[in-house]
Each structure stands twice: as structure tokens, then as C-alpha cells.
């Protein structure tokens, strides 16, 4: 089968559309240094295995559904996140609509029905603080156990730091809110006028 390239799914791929993959998951708002490191680790695993590297992301931001009052201002629209992923060399992107129904799904079902059943995951690459599933129950230990049951490997990436702090979308937003665009760019690892505009 020809491996898919630059394909974007707006929901889980249908059975058979994606038979094997290296998957990295998260919101990826801003595409900061940590996100880039995660994608690079996934690409290295994809190349090693000869499997497509797929970035799985959510839209809207999970907090917009789980706690709308605390939902952060979006740094990059989902189309820009997809473009960043492709520019780095990711083969395909899955954008899952984050709905109340998805938030209620157990981590086990998310992994078995989604990652294994629809994506044929061979290797899962996440940051050490990643969680998925109802109530955030699916931490990296949970994912490793699921990986042993289903025969996929879990690669946990150490969080990228910049001096004293851990790079995160939250840190970028904090710097922007303080009016310090240079600091925001320092966490991001690049100058990005669209993100400066997100400061409003
Ligand atoms: C199936 C599923 C259910 C989730 N349910 C919850 C939840 O109940 N409470 C919560 O705070 N986050 C929940 N999340 C969101 C995750 O904790 C997390 O924010 C999301 O997977 C993105 O990961 P990231 O924040 O590391 O990018 C869920 C995620 C998934 C995939
Ligand atoms: N500094 C980092 N280094 C490496 N991986 C990271 C880093 N920060 C987040 N990740 C990973 O990137 C993926 C996407 O996470 P997410 O988009 O929630 O990042 P975040 O920047 O921590 O966001 P927020 O600040 O809004 O919680 C997850 O797998 C997460 O574990």
C-alpha cells in the first residue's frame, strides 16, 4: 500500500485507511520548542520503522469543552498547527473534534478503539506530562501498560526547558499577557508575527 502523505483526517481514519503509524499526540498550540522536539522524536521513530509519522491533535482546545471559563486564548488556529507539522516532515495529521463525548471516553477505549483500532499505532511518542482519557486517567504509566497489551512501544520525551522553566503553551501565553513578546519568542524558539498578534 502507498503510504499516505500530507493527508488530514477530521475524525478517526476509517479502518484500513491507516494500517501502521508512529503517533504523537497533543494540542500543539503555538508549536513551541517542546512540541518541535516531540515531533522530531516521532519522525526519528517513523524513519526507523519505515512507518508514517502522524500527529494527532484536538480542536477546539480540550479546556474549551471541559472548563470554558478557563479556556486559554488560542495562539495558533488548527490550520497553522497542521502546516507546522507538515513543514517539519510529519506525514499525516488527525484533527479530532474535542467534544463532551470524547472527554468522557476512558483512556483504555481511546487507546484501543482509536490509536490501535483506527491508526494501527506501532509507536506512541508523548511528553512526560501527557495525559488522555476521562479525568486525565491515561498518564504515561497507563499508556505503557496499554502498549504492552497491544504491542506498541511508548516513547516518553523529557520536557524541553529554557533556563529555569519548562516550555509550554501556557508560558508563551503568560509572556504575551505580560507584554513581553521577546520572552514569548524565546519559549517558542522562533519569531512568529502571528503569535505576537494573538497577544491582542
Ligand atoms: C479521550 C480523552 C478524554 C479526555 N478527558 C479529559 C477529562 O475528563 N479531563 C481533563 O482535564 N482532560 C481530559 N482530556 C484532555 C487531556 O488531559 C489532554 O489535555 C489532551 O489529551 C491534550 O494533551 P496535552 O494537553 O498534553 O496536549 C481528555 C483527552 C482525551 C484524548
Ligand atoms: N516542554 C516540552 N517538551 C517536550 N514535550 C512537551 C513539552 N510540553 C508539552 N509537551 C508534549 O507535547 C504534547 C502536546 O502538549 P500540549 O499541547 O498540551 O503542550 P503544552 O505546551 O504543555 O500546553 P499547555 O501549556 O496549554 O498545557 C504532549 O504530548 C506534551 O506532553
Automatic annotation (TrEMBL):
One of its GO terms (molecular function) is riboflavin kinase activity. It is an enzyme of class 2 (transferase). It comes from Nocardioides iriomotensis. Pfam families: FAD_syn. Its EC number is 2.7.7.2. Belongs to the RibF family. PANTHER family: RIBOFLAVIN KINASE (PTHR22749:SF6), RIBOFLAVIN KINASE/FMN ADENYLYLTRANSFERASE (PTHR22749). SUPFAM superfamilies: Nucleotidylyl transferase (SSF52374). Keywords: ATP-binding, FAD, Flavoprotein, FMN, Nucleotide-binding, Nucleotidyltransferase, Transferase. Residues 17-170 form the FAD synthetase domain. One of its GO terms (biological process) is riboflavin biosynthetic process. Gene3D superfamilies: HUPs. Pathway: Cofactor biosynthesis; FAD biosynthesis; FAD from FMN: step 1/1. It catalyses: FMN + ATP + H(+) = FAD + diphosphate. The lineage of its organism: Bacteria, Bacillati, Actinomycetota, Actinomycetes, Propionibacteriales. CDD domains: FAD_synthetase_N. This is FAD synthase. InterPro entries: FAD_synthase, Riboflavin_kinase, Rossmann-like_a/b/a_fold.
Amino acid at each position: 500500500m502507498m503510504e499516505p502523505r500530507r493527508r488530514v483526517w477530521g475524525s478517526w481514519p476509517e479502518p484500513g485507511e491507516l494500517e501502521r503509524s508512529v503517533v504523537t499526540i497533543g494540542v500543539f498550540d503555538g508549536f513551541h520548542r517542546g512540541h518541535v522536539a516531540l515531533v522530531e522524536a516521532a519522525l526519528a521513530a517513523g524513519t526507523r520503522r519505515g512507518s508514517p509519522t502522524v500527529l494527532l491533535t484536538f480542536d477546539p482546545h480540550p479546556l474549551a469543552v471541559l472548563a470554558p471559563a478557563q479556556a486559554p486564548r488560542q495562539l495558533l488556529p488548527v490550520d497553522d498547527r497542521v502546516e507546522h507539522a507538515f513543514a517539519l516532515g510529519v506525514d499525516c495529521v488527525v484533527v479530532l473534534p474535542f467534544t463532551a463525548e470524547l472527554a468522557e471516553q476512558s483512556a483504555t477505549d481511546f487507546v484501543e478503539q482509536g490509536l490501535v483500532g483506527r491508526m494501527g499505532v506501532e509507536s506512541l511518542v508523548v511528553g512526560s506530562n501527557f495525559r488522555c482519557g476521562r479525568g486525565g486517567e491515561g498518564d504515561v504509566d497507563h499508556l505503557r501498560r496499554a502498549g504492552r497489551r497491544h504491542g506498541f512501544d511508548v516513547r516518553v520525551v523529557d520536557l524541553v526547558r529554557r533556563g529555569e522553566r519548562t516550555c509550554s503553551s501556557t508560558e508563551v501565553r503568560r509572556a504575551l499577557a505580560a507584554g513581553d513578546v521577546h520572552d514569548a519568542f524565546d519559549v517558542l524558539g522562533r519569531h512568529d508575527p502571528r503569535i505576537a498578534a494573538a497577544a491582542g
